[in-house]
Design goal:
Rossmann fold; 5-stranded parallel sheet; globular; TCS_response_regulator; Response regulator rcp1; phosphoprotein
Length: 178
Amino acid sequence: MLGDSRTKPMEILLVEDGLVDARITIHALRRSGVHHRLTLVRTVHEAILFMKRTGIFSRAPRLDLLLLDMLLPDGTGLDVLEEMREIQPEAGRITTVVLTALEDDTYRKRCDELGVYDYIQKPVSEEEFLRVVRDHKKLMIHLQQAAVASAPDGHEGNSAINAPHFNTAAHHSAQSST
């Protein structure tokens, strides 16, 4: 297993209105061997409540990975990304992977502008999806170990985790290794 009870589970928010697609994604995550906790929401509104930690999501964890469908019943994944940027200016450190059947270069370009880590076309190749998730988990483990090692008292510090440029570096590294 990539990560275990000694490492922080990867906190994943899956924003997907299609139950079949949600099941496929959840099943792939289970098979990935990545230590994680997943929350499933089905609308833009629910995703925003989760990120704002309001209402039923008042105790929502801080996200490590956002898996985002583009076409949702009450808007688009772009609405989620734009709202996320407003409510969490540091949101650049939340890795976002778009999983969509939408074949629109305008959406893809806007996702790039908003710092989306990866844009995967449905039907999703499980191999590609698992590569992205595992690469991100490896990065998380590395950052956690670096934070503990750099803290003066041996406890996890905050600054090593809050480094948005690592997502970009990891993404480019992962892309070049395939």
